[in-house]
Design goal:
The complex is a heterodimer of chains A (about 425) and B (about 290). Chain A is built from 19 helices and 17 strands. Chain A has about 425 residues and is an alpha/beta fold. In chain A, the strands form four sheets. Chain A has a six-stranded mixed sheet with strand order 6-7-8-3-9-10, with helices on both faces. The radius of gyration of chain A is 26 Å and the shape is elongated. Chain A starts with 6 loop residues before the first helix and ends with a helix. Chain B is mostly helical and about 290 residues long. Classes of the chains: A alpha/beta (about 425), B mainly alpha (about 290).
Chain lengths: ~425, ~290
């Protein structure tokens, strides 16, 4: 998809590619059931495979009045990234560490694959769960290869299998095995170190990964790249991931679903990012996602899905100017789009010039600086619209030929429809519960 | 510096490119991002230099002492001078005795202090740590002479008494360094190890102890040198050692005896300090 290649590097705003958006809409089908289960309703049998279930989990430290985590019930589905996000001190890290029992819960139960692991041997449990932390924690006295081999070794893999796995994982995280396997952690930059951290967590191919602000200590440019690469890797691996962050933009970008947590890890809203953006359930969530949520929501709407594109008056180089001007005034536009022989949009020509009968060449008017492809997000369409002469965003097909335009009213309609859908979704939830 | 580092990181992310890009090889990267790392690098370099020149210096000192010893003309000298300086019957046996005392007291210190240090950094005993360190501190705060007399009154004369007294005296540096070394291991490294399913014992033996080795070894080195020095007092309670020669020189007012005795102690101490430095350099885990 024709995304300006440098944008992901420049902005912290979420960017998604097409495949991911498609997956998002698949996920949207299941959120109804998910919400039922998190709001206390009985999970329906058609529910997506539940990988992790926290059931009224509670953590109370001795000598404190308030529990750090108060009666949390949460399901994580197979192959999704569930982001726990909330203000600092809300207990999101504690919640994450309850799952692999780095912190022992004082109440409730934890299930992995419907197996109660609340009382299982914590060391054996943790070997089944990848764990990535912000500080990375690579073993400084071990080479990269030895670091990655930690869990496979404990599980008693044979040497050849471990060696092969190390090289495979280094390639997965984008590091050349020959260069890096013999290095020590202090020889790595922060970004490289966290790549190794992720590779180490993937060591024994766990089905579940817990990630505690994994990209939090990395500079913004590298962070953005790591996030994109991680999403790409996740496309193939489809691990079940619980991801903690305090950054709502990272949550929107990384999450298939987002759980917004308040004090004591109380779930204020858990849903897909687009629905949270379209319909924050209360002021807490609204404050937390902050300003610009409408704009962020545009990342989740694509040009081809719901937007009914409008035609726009066009002309070719040989056309009679006055005919073209007549077409434009019929369509009530001030501009006409000049196409080349392959129907690629090339220039904006002002209707006033046509009416004066000026001959139209490939140099008339002004250049079409901005166009978007089918499948681009409405956010991109908006960006192009802002720099376009005619204040509309021309959309081209995959072969570059003109398809239609996106206008501001499209965005307006899309946003309002998303809000309406989200509202109806929550109203139907209320009606059933 | 920070600009250069960020630039390197930014470019490193391109797949495949970083591997062959010589600009980004870590050894070419500015290595001073972390002042702590830089300071130990500097220290390590200084260590290596010292390691190479120290044997020369020690050998030179030994040569000077030897020439001085030869120049005394022991064959013709008075009995007060020649008798205490006999190599076969006095100086060599005393040196061996001296080393025996230092060796056993150091071994015992290691055997007691390292496990104790480990135990006192584990959660169940951690709260006793400060108290035990305070007790160990008092062992060193007491005058060594007094300590020897106390143990003399308990255990009587002899080598064993000396060794026990020296253990009490020298336990502090090893105990403290073991605790400091283990506590100094980055918590996130331990957290990562635990989070991957390593047991407490595995975290201790595979991560904490290897990473604490440099600090622990430094403590052992200090204890060893303390013990070699303090073994000079062993003669006070019949423990022998080179202190006998030094004391004889003092009592008989024979300066050459005094000087030879003290010089041999110095040579022994310097030699073992050098061995300690070697161990610290080469037993340091790679990558740290």
């Amino acid at each position: 998809m024709a995304r300006p290649p440098d944008r992901s590097a420049r902005t912290a705003l979420p960017t998604r590619d097409r495949t991911r958006d498609r997956r998002m809409s698949e996920n949207a089908d299941t959120t109804l059931e998910q919400n039922e289960s998190t709001t206390g309703g009985a999970p329906s049998p058609g529910d997506r495979l539940r990988k992790i279930r926290l059931e009224e989990v509670e953590k109370r430290y001795p000598g404190t009045k308030q529990p750090a985590v108060a009666s949390l019930t949460l399901d994580v589905h197979e192959g999704e990234i569930l982001v726990l996000v909330g203000p600092s001190g809300c207990g999101k890290s504690t919640t994450l560490r309850l799952i692999n029992r780095m912190i022992e819960p004082t109440g409730g139960r934890i299930f992995l694959d419907d197996e109660d692991v609340t009382k299982a041997n914590p060391d054996k449990l943790r070997r089944r769960i990848g764990y990535v932390i912000q500080q990375i924690g690579l073993f400084p006295h071990q080479t990269i290869a030895q670091n990655i081999a930690t869990v496979p070794k404990m599980l008693g893999w044979d040497k050849n299998r471990i060696t092969g796995r190390i090289d495979e994982l280094l390639s997965v995280v984008g590091l050349d095995p020959d260069t890096y396997r013999g290095r020590y952690p202090k020889e790595l930059s922060g970004g490289q170190a966290q790549r190794v951290g992720v590779a180490r967590a993937l060591g024994a191919d766990p089905e579940i990964m817990l990630m505690d602000e994994p990209f939090g200590a990395i500079d913004p440019i590298t962070r953005d790249r790591l996030q994109n690469e991680f999403l790409r890797v996740q496309e193939d691996l489809r691990k079940t991931i619980v991801f903690v962050t305090h950054d709502i933009d990272e949550a929107i970008k990384m999450g298939d679903r987002i759980a917004i947590l308040g004090e004591q890890s109380v779930i204020r809203q858990v849903d897909t990012p687009e629905r949270i953006l379209a319909f924050p359930v209360d002021d807490f969530v609204r404050d937390f996602i902050g300003e610009g949520s409408t704009l962020k929501g545009l990342h989740f709407e694509t040009v081809d899905e719901h937007v009914k594109l409008e035609p726009y008056p066009t002309m070719h180089v040989g056309d009679t100017p006055t005919d073209a001007a007549a077409r434009a005034s019929e369509a009530n536009t001030d501009w006409i789009l000049l196409l080349d022989e392959q129907d690629h949009p090339i220039r904006w020509v002002a209707v006033g010039d046509l009416e004066r009968g000026e001959a139209v060449t490939a140099e008339s008017g002004s250049e079409v600086a901005a166009k978007v492809s089918l499948g681009a997000t409405l956010f991109e369409a908006l960006e192009q619209m802002l720099i376009s002469e005619a204040a509309v965003s021309p959309v081209v097909r995959d072969d570059g030929s003109f398809y239609g335009v996106v206008r501001l009213t499209h965005l307006n309609r899309a946003i309002r429809r998303a809000r309406l859908e989200a509202r109806e979704h929550y109203e139907s939830l209320e009606a059933t519960s | 510096m920070s600009v250069a580092t960020t630039g390197a990181q930014g470019r490193i992310g391109y797949e495949g490119q970083d591997a062959d890009n010589p600009d980004l090889q870590p050894d070419k990267r500015p290595s001073g991002d972390n002042p702590q790392e830089a300071s130990w690098l500097r220290r390590a370099r200084a260590n290596h230099l010292g390691l190479k020149t120290a044997p020369l210096g020690i050998g030179l000192l030994a040569l000077v002492v030897f020439l001085y010893y030869r120049s005394l003309g022991l064959g013709d000298s008075v009995i007060q001078l020649s008798s205490p300086l006999q190599w076969d019957t006095k100086l060599w046996p005393q040196t061996v005795q001296h080393l025996t005392i230092a060796f056993w007291s150091t071994v015992l210190v290691v055997l007691v202090a390292i496990p104790l240090g480990i135990a006192l950094t584990r959660p169940p005993l951690r709260r006793f740590g400060p108290a035990i360190v305070a007790v160990a501190n008092s062992g060193q705060a007491l005058p060594a002479y007094g300590l020897l007399i106390i143990f003399l009154s308990i255990m009587g004369q002899g080598l064993n008494t000396v060794v026990v007294a020296l253990v009490v005296y020298a336990i502090l540096p090893v105990l403290r360094n073991t605790m400091v070394g283990l506590d100094g291991v980055d918590r996130s490294v331990i957290e990562a190890g635990r989070g991957m399913g390593m047991t407490r014992r595995q975290v201790l033996t595979r991560i904490e102890l290897p990473l604490a080795v440099p600090v622990i070894l430094a403590g052992v080195r200090v204890a060893m040198i303390l013990n070699i020095g303090m073994a000079t007092l062993a003669f006070l309670i019949g423990g022998g050692g080179l202190g006998v020669t030094i004391s004889t020189g003092l009592k008989l007012q024979q300066d050459p005896v005094l000087i030879i005795g003290a010089s041999i102690v110095a040579i022994v101490a310097l030699t073992f300090d050098w061995i300690g430095a070697l161990a610290e350099t080469y037993l340091r885990p790679k990558g740290v």
